[in-house]
Design goal:
There is one protein chain. The chain is mainly α. It has one domain. The protein is built from three helices and no strands. Helix 2 crosses helix 3. The protein is globular and about 30 Å long. The model has no long low-confidence stretch (mean pLDDT 93).
């Protein structure tokens, strides 16, 4: 399965506002803040994004996206 990497971030972008990375995004939040918020909401152990490879980090963020969507959709 080919993964859509158009919404992946680099480690250098973790603390950059998402609106500065992705067109049409209005939040001042960063990918790092998003990950930490998801982890709190989902009640999971905080991750060490710095220890992950680019691919591992983005797959982790994608998994958080899916879990948050599932939570929102009940």
């Amino acid at each position: 399965m080919i993964q859509d990497r158009s919404n992946w971030v680099t480690k250098e972008q973790l603390d950059t506002p998402l609106r500065d990375i992705f067109q049409g995004v209005k939040t001042n939040g960063t990918a790092r803040i998003y990950v930490a918020s998801c982890e709190v909401i989902l009640g999971i152990e905080p991750s060490n994004l710095e220890a992950m490879s680019y691919e591992e980090m983005n797959k982790y963020i994608d998994s958080l996206d899916r879990r948050m969507a599932a939570l929102a959709n009940g």
